[in-house]
DNA-binding protein (Acinetobacter higginsii), 99 residues
Amino acid sequence: MATIEKKGKVRLTILDRMTSEEKAAEAIKYWAAPKDATFTPEVLAIVYKKSLPWFQLKRCTGGGIPFSKEGRTILYTKQDAIEYFSKQTHSSTSSAAYT
């Protein structure tokens, strides 16, 4: 469970508050959307089975999915996400990515 601690208090993330049905509905909306549609990190975390801290780390250190900001909201295009994750395949565990 991904939680955020602030001053000793535990706060549930958006993903923690969603039911499995709500998560499934978000994934269906994602795959039905056009390639230029934008999505939040929460939706991509559901679809691609990555944690929210993983997306945050990639935004800060680089090497992740290109993103934009609208106010305080982080957005990714579906096309950029598909391209990024399609490049992340490996033919074996001995490939250079694992060394």
Q: What stands out?
A: Residues 20-32 form the longest helix (13 residues).
